[in-house]
Records
---
Amino acid sequence: MKKITKATFKAFVKKHREELCVRGSRSSDGGFAKAKPSTLDQPRHTRGITGVWLVGGGRDFFAKYEDDLYTGISVGNCCGCFIVAIRK
């Protein structure tokens, strides 16, 4: 299995921007929601998506995510964790 890196994450987000869903560690219902544009002026950290926050400096940890309905990438760092995914 290919290692998931920040470059893999960025490519996945760019390729699937229109169909991307996000699930954060602070989701009230624990489910995925359609990705919304971020209102923060931090594109390097948010990739322009609400619920996404990368800290950089090798402190983001990436893993493959897959369940019955979604496939994507799980990200963890000192700010929490989130998943970006698309429906299968």
Note: DSSP finds two helices and five strands in the chain.
---
Amino acid sequence: MNATWRTTGTLCRERDWSQQHLLYELEKGLPYRTIPPGWGVRWGSHLWPFLDVGASKLLVPPGGLRGIVPPPSAKHSDLFTWGVLLGIEVLPPDAPADTEVPAPAAIAPAASPTPRRPSDDAVEHCFRNIMTVRPDDPPDEKWLLAEMKDRLGAPPGRQRVRNL
């Protein structure tokens, strides 16, 4: 049954799709799977610079990326230190109905009464990573706190960020 899955490059060549069109289709629900399995991806234009369609790879830089959720088995410390290179395979819209589609990974962590507090090292690493990406355009506090919350999976704490 794996014969129907395609690399992003193959599907785009077959359909004459651009990278923008592929991202649009993925955002609208085109079935995909990640290699290694279990990663959740919230597709959108923010992933444009991180998706290599020809190689069928998605680069998650050190510090993480908004909308990317690792499987429960992944170590968050490795993600923040090294980043991840995910393989992506897609299922063409006209694939046979009996093709096995993996269950979608949870994009948001399950709600818990007390969210975990990120370590000081993780908060600092995330902060420094954002600042290296935007050296000439420092973000405002509201955006920075929201971005760090997305990347860390929990609020970093306003005072902790201000101290950095």
Note: Confidence is low (pLDDT under 50) at residues 108-114.
---
Amino acid sequence: MLAALIRLSGSMIEGLIRMVVNRNVTLTPDMMDSILWNVQAGCSLAEISLIALVFYLSLKKLRRYKGLVDEDDYAQMGRLQEEVFGKNISSLSADSIEQLLQMWAVILIGAECVYFCSSIVYRRFTTELMLLLFGGQQYTSFVSIYNLAHGFKYLEMLTAIVLGIVMTAIVLHDRYLKIAAAVITLVFLLAFGIFQMQTIQVSGRQIGIVWTSVIFHLTETFGLFILSVYLSKRYRGL
């Protein structure tokens, strides 16, 4: 609820500033206006910080409450809560609530971070497109647009895979999987926003390497295979 209110407040503030700022009518989109762009970036960073603070304080509060009861008394406390709540209201264990908090923290904060980074890249994409159409830098702009477009192509599927890894890590209380997911996300975002396409010569032919494509295909093939081997070795089933 607090995260939703923070997002709503940020959108309202951004909308009000857009109404106040007078902008000359041009052929370029609003994102090319430096004032409006800085406002959007500032609102996004503020929302990420505040939402992260909300989830941090919530998890801290929950763990403090968990520490008030011995683990041996968890089951008995749970039965007592069920008697008080009644049959029509589900009661969740503290561990379940903690897992849900972590999951939604990853979804809301992680998704906002990805959105912020993709907004930056999309602005660059639009700039390169304007140069391609009106600036006369056809080849350079085309290569840059091709490289940036590949990041958007793989962003959704890679996000789904990373979310799967993180959710697995939260359920299994596995910090190594959380670190692996963070590393994959960081490397992909760096490739998405910073790395340029590299060209190599193979048998007299030029081949362009798009690093977002390399990272994505390695993750969905070798990465998932390594994950399955790790899970089968470290954990046992039924």
Note: The chain has a mean pLDDT of 82.
---
Amino acid sequence: MAINEWKVWKKIGLVKPKEVHVDVETDVDVILDFLKTSPKTDFKKIRSLFKDYLELRSEEKILKKSKAPQKKLIENVKQQITAYDKILKAYEFFQMDTDVNGKRVKKIAQSIRRKAKRVKVPKKWIEHTKKDMKWTFEW
């Protein structure tokens, strides 16, 4: 690490941290697009995949009760693995989208807070953005 990158310079106040530029309009558009598509596609798909998986589990219970051949039980468990693999894949995509959009929301909040300080909004409002759990993302 170069001497000009040391954190001590920031602590002393000789170097100010770089302000990250946030394109609020683009971020909000992306978040809205995500929210428009999520309930219709991701949730339905995940619910459908879980339904298929639960059907395989109930089939497994029937196979065990009827003392079916081991091959049928093995085949059922393989199908469960395949079905759950699809669930994990769908959930992974959903989670990544959610995480990315959560970061965007946080950046927008920080941008609004900086703007409020810059234009000298009354202290009451700035304190609200510093203390409210929604604004500090402690949820």
Note: DSSP finds six helices and no strands in the chain.
